[in-house]
Write a structure and sequence with these properties.
The chain is an alpha/beta fold. The protein is built from 11 helices and 12 strands. The chain starts with a strand and ends in an 8-residue tail after the last helix.
Length: 376
């Protein structure tokens, strides 16, 4: 069944979308009050946490994924099918991470340990969760490349775009979007891959992995340094054969919808036109929402940038578009943001954006007008 969008031009449900997720990923749950494996990193993290004047809990928790799936169950999007994929293999992960790093990560199975002083950690079931996350990202790519769905969204955790070839960072252990891209290149015949990262934080890990690769175009909008992780300057454009294939757009915390739309239309669209990707991947973080970390994006803003990348995929690679969940820590805006994006992927129309606050003022004016006019 298709639902008519507000403008009536498009129908939600006209396009098929596969959502890949798995409850196994709920098992990743570093609880900071429990004992962790002794190490120098553990001592540093404990010192940091003891210096805080408030109780700190691990922000990347199972409730994030649970909130999304609950909202989608209560508010299903026509055209969306929920699926699960297999876990990723060591070989698949090894295309973007070193053997030494993977051996270390896999040795953490069953343990509670801090991996980095930026408060990245594992719990006893984290390795099952990270292999499931990467595996579902791969499954999402396979579904669109093989024509099983027009687009796909891997609703996975822990996120991945901060994970570097040899280091866990920023709550990320395995770089899921990079693993999916490498699989598409190696096994699915995709020669040129566009990766768009709209998370509020710069995707330093993804940039590092494809820094010198001319077959991957990496486009990243993010909150400018010194916002974590502090990378993503305008002049970071890649190196060697990959010079010019990294595009960073650092933005102020207050950027908002129209700045994002301008960046996507005036920078990403012509870059994609030149690159002509065979597959489009998105590191989809929802912490740019105005109720979350930074960037002041609305649900309408998410819808518009989703349509832009969807149009790029339609034009250059038969609509082959895969989104991979990254950040987003306000549970309400996270769940609603994912829902808004899925509506567009499923064929829904998009609104016309206005400067911040103008839409709300117009709605308020309509609501109050009857009190001081004779209009019925």
């Amino acid at each position: 069944m298709a639902f008519t969008s507000q403008s009536g031009d498009k129908m939600i449900g006209d396009r098929s979308v596969s959502v890949f997720t798995d409850d196994v990923m709920l098992g990743h749950n570093p609880e900071v009050d429990l004992p962790f494996m002794p190490s120098r990193v553990e001592k540093r993290v404990r010192h940091i946490l003891q210096g805080l004047d408030f109780k700190w809990s691990y922000p990347e928790h199972p409730g994030r994924l649970a909130a999304i799936t609950k909202h989608l169950a209560e508010n299903p999007v026509p055209g969306v099918t929920i699926k699960s994929g297999p876990t990723a293999t060591y070989e698949q992960l090894g295309r973007v991470h070193t053997t030494a790093y993977l051996d270390h990560i896999f040795s953490m199975a069953g343990e509670r340990a801090w991996l980095d002083s930026d408060t990245t950690a594992v719990s006893p079931d984290s390795i099952k969760a990270v292999t499931a996350a990467a595996g579902n990202a791969i499954a999402a790519v396979e579904s669109v490349v093989k024509g099983e769905s027009q687009s796909a969204f891997a609703l996975i955790r822990p996120p991945g775009h901060h994970a570097e070839p040899v280091r866990a960072r920023g709550f990320c252990l395995i770089n899921n979007v990079a693993v999916a891209a490498a699989h598409a290149q190696t096994k699915l015949g995709c020669e040129r891959i566009l990766i768009v990262d709209w998370d509020a934080h710069h995707g330093n890990g993804t940039q590092d992995i494809f820094w010198a690769d001319p077959d991957v175009l990496f486009f990243d909008t993010h909150c400018a340094a010194p916002f974590y992780p502090g990378s993503g300057d305008l002049n970071e454009v890649g190196a060697g054969m990959g010079e010019g294939y990294t595009i960073n757009v650092p933005l102020p915390e207050t950027a908002g919808d129209m700045a994002f739309e301008k960046a996507f239309r005036e920078i990403l669209v012509p870059a994609a036109e030149h690159f002509k990707p065979d597959l489009v991947l998105v590191s989809a973080g929802f912490d740019p929402h105005r109720n979350d970390m930074a960037m002041n994006l609305s649900y309408d803003g998410f819808k518009v940038i989703t349509r832009i990348v969807q149009d790029i995929a339609d034009k250059h690679c038969n609509g082959r578009l895969v989104l991979v969940l990254e950040g987003g820590y306000n549970l309400t805006s996270l769940a609603n943001g994912v829902h808004a994006v899925l509506e567009v992927l499923a064929g829904g129309d998009i609104p016309e954006l206005a400067p911040n606050g103008v839409k709300e003022v117009a709605e308020a004016a309509t609501f109050h007008r009857s009190a001081f006019t004779d209009d019925e």
